[in-house]
Amino acid sequence: MRQRLERWEAERGLDTLTDGSRRLVLGSYAALALLLAFAGWRLQAGTSLIAALIYLLPLLLFLPSLIARRPRGHAWLAFVSLLYFMMGVNIAILPGLGLLGMAIVIAALALFTGATGYARFRSRQLRRDA
Questions:
Q1: Alpha carbons 90 and 97: distance in angstroms, whole number
Q2: Which of 71, 88, 94 is nearest to 18 (CA)?
């Protein structure tokens, strides 16, 4: 796997891969945040906005790392996205919420893929430029 990634980096370039993974992180982060806000509101039957925002709190803690483009913060975000993956699976088995749960699962997997890619490519890019 490592050789395949290094060959891919040589063919496409670190800058292109870093930019692509960054776009994937930002898009999936926004999608996951919107889906989680909707899921929180839907699961709480629209009674409390605070309950809906509780789902977003762990995700929002990584916003400074996203803004600062820190590879380590992206790596930790990848681990946290797996918690949202599990949450999406749990929501998907609830009656009437299958599509919402699967959308959360897809967004969490996209966030995981983008964040791990960004952490790898950006750290290698920083090492190269140093």
A1: 10
A2: 71
Per-residue pLDDT of the chain (130 residues; tens, 9 = 90+): 788 878 888 888 889 999 999 999 999 999 999 999 888 877 776 667 777 777 888 999 999 999 999 999 999 999 999 999 999 999 999 999 999 999 999 999 999 999 999 999 999 999 888 7
Burial of 67 (0-12, 13-18, 19+ CB in 10 A): exposed
- CB contact set of 99 (below 8 Å; sequence gap of 6+): none
b/e map 72-100, b = 16+ CB within 10 Å: ebbbebbebbeebbebbeebbeeeebeeb
Put simply, whether the predicted model's pTM sits higher than 0.85 gets the answer yes
Amino acid type, 101: G
Backbone angles phi, psi at 48, to 5 degrees: -145, 130
What are the C-alpha distances in Å from 64 to residues 8, 73, 74, 101? 29, 9, 10, 27
